[in-house]
Structure prediction request, 515 residues.
Amino acid sequence: MRISVLTIIFFCLLTFLSACSDSPISPDASDQELDRIIDEGLEAWRKPGAIQEGAACANCHAPDALDLAYFDFSSNTLKRRAEPHVSQFSSQLSANDFKKIKKLVEAQRIKYGIQPKDPMEFRPLQPGGEVLPGNTAAERDHAFGRQLRDMEFAATTDTVLSLEDAKQHRDAWLQVNPRRLKIGIPFNRWSEDPHHGTEHATMADWLPDLPRIPREGRAGEWYALQDAYLDNPTDENFWEMYSNVHRYTQSIFDGRSEHFFHRKYRSVLMAQHIFRKELMGQEEFPDRPSLAWFPTRSDDIDNPIWDIGLTAHGLRNGPDDEEDFEMPPDVLLRSKPSGSIKEQMDDIRVPWFYAGWLFDQGLQHSGGSSATTQARYFTLHMHIDDGYPIHNAFAITRKLIVENFDTEIHQEEKPINANYENFSNRAHRHQPGNENAREIYRLMTLNSYRMMALFVQDYIANKGIPSGSEEAEERVAHWQETLDHFERFTEEVQGPNHTYNLQLISDVRIAILEG
Prediction:
């Protein structure tokens, strides 16, 4: 049997790749030595590889491999994942370059003092750092309710029966920090790998399957922006790099999945910036205001994490035809063993909506239509995708309180928005099955309705009925719709405050009619 020279060369490269195990970097290495190793590694990190039209590692990951350092990916995993990218041509990624990348990862861990996280256990942006216990969504939803009650959160322990009560509950809602509360919704892992089984051959992770390669002749400008950011990783330099992704890079594929993977790459950039600030001992993401990038971007933010949830909503029934979510054949082959596109989007939708909401909890700064600003599909899918009713009541109420009352992120006063969207018209039908969970859910939901109804009543008493614009008329229509759903829910519950609820609903309706 004859073997080509190229095959022999390529085999030797892979053998070298397997054997490259230089002695580890000393933990006491000087800053100058670490910088030298990082500079050499960055050159290799940005070098075109053998597949995906010469994509480099930097075209899918953090600008300096920080994400690989942040997670405890083994040397064997890095080697196995790198092998398809290694080329026999000197102008492309070589086994020697891979050795430099391994050193780059090692140097980053020393430089930042990283204790790498288990990539199978740690889920980026997971509130509270871990998922609440439970084998089913219903069990984890109940665990979330118990957590709120155990911490004596007013909405789950007390009852709103006056405007003064409503104001006290509003203040409790403003003080609660959703990023530090554990939830029962498992966020996606950083990277899924078919090597661990077909259930891991899925797009339900952070890393994009389509790279963003530099546009022809623009690589120097693109990497200069990355260098400026790496030299001084402030929010301002991050946004300068991030905002130029489209200007200086492009996808290798123009099918309709390109938008989805472009958003994933932007999400990777955002997440690695959060990792970096945490490692540098700067302000951590969980402690930022409800508009996460305030004050360095106090206007509308680009929220690609939320947008991935929107894309997954659009594919809730799967693509109608191949062009609706067309992917390159090799990408499709890697993702399909774990299930259909629909099944994978089912694993993406709620986690990415919730993670995107954590960046903009009033949902007034993430762009888009009323589907975003009113949380239309977010509230829909937390009812129907496995079902997280207590989480849903929590998220929509916090959203309304932030939108209406969080003056730290907006000063413009508008008529009270009391639009519960898809939460409201399904609230009575999608209650928890467990009796104790249902009790928490009902108290929380009724408190939310009563609180907002009392604020609407107070607004009318002090400022009258808003008018003169389409937005004002829409607000009043939402008040009326919410009262209808409040009435339907209170009739379903028939609780101890049933009479009070009906009287409040009647009083607010009269106030709307009389102005």
Notes: The two ends are 92 Å apart (CA to CA).
